[in-house]
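So, read this over?
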Amino acid sequence: MDFDGVYRAEYGRCVATLTRFLGDISLAEEAVQDAFATAVEKWDEAPPNPGAWIVTTARNRAIDRLRRESTREARHAQALLLHGPDEPREVGPVRDDQLRLIFTCCHPALSPLARTALTLRLLGGLEVGEIARAYLVPETTVSQRIVRAKKKIRDAGIPYRVPRDGELPERLASVLTVLYLIFNEGYTSTRGDLLRTDLCLEAIRLARALADLMPGESEVTGLLALLLLTEARRPARVGASGELVVLAEQDRSLWNRELIAEGHELVRRCLRRDRPGPYQVQAAINAVHTDGRSTDWAQVLALYDRLWRLTPTPIVALNRAVAVAEVHGPAAALAGIEGLDLPGYHHLPATRANLLSRLGRDEDAIAAYDEAITLATNDTERAFLENRRARLRSG
């Protein structure tokens, strides 16, 4: 039985559902963790609906715990668990436990890192170390922010609901970031296998729900288009032996044409609105990649130039260098990334290694691959880099 797979697939939904019952994120998370610990002891194989089993067990554990408590708050929570309605009265127009949890975690009273770290922990089931690697920060920093965020949500009485229309815009940027990061963790997991399809599909589902909630927000449309166009390429991203297949080598006949068509239509909708934002530009870049038999790199570079003007970050500069290499050559691209500072980010030395090898500087490229391999945490990506290094060594 793939218990880890069940945990990854069900953890976020179970925490979100139990938070609706309990009204306390920390208590919900503890109860779900206890339920999974019980499952390890009792399951020989997963039940037909493992999520329902976990939620029921966690709810019962929470009731037992609250019965042992003597505070008024504990007695009130116990009454809700035992006698409360199955569905809460929703303030916003969307009835979705996970979307409610995202908006709760993305309350403006919390710091930006705390918002995304807490949501990735609760919705994605990511460990603190995985989140720390995604943000290139120490594990202790992430752990402290998560603890403080949950305490602040509890102490400040931050409501577990989708906000009213007037409150939505101030939460939007954080929510979009969270959905983007959840999808990215599914598309390139920080550890283990390359893909976590459950996270990709969950991020897309939540992005669709958000687009229904805020149909006039161009960046919401842009994010959904970006996720769809990226997901469309997933079937070609892993080879027959489980190896990573880069974009230039992918079999385009394996791409999902329905998702591509939907994504292109959403990009055209954004263009008609003419209110460009970072997610819309990234979606447009992916639309170029998925339009026709090959990529128009000059158009991609022009879009990266626009993205750079919107968000001049080292990550954008690094991704832009790939397009620069195709249009102006690897030497120009290498010059553009030499000053970048991205400690712990393996894609920087991996990109440098690729550019150096194209310039015939094999020894320098091998050294860059060594650095990238040391930093890579995903098994599939590490194997890909090791293969590229071995090809250079063999001449």
In short: Residues 226 and 283 are 4 Å apart (CA to CA). The longest helix spans residues 3-22. The domain at 313-393 is CATH 1.25.40.10 (Serine Threonine Protein Phosphatase 5, Tetratricopeptide repeat).
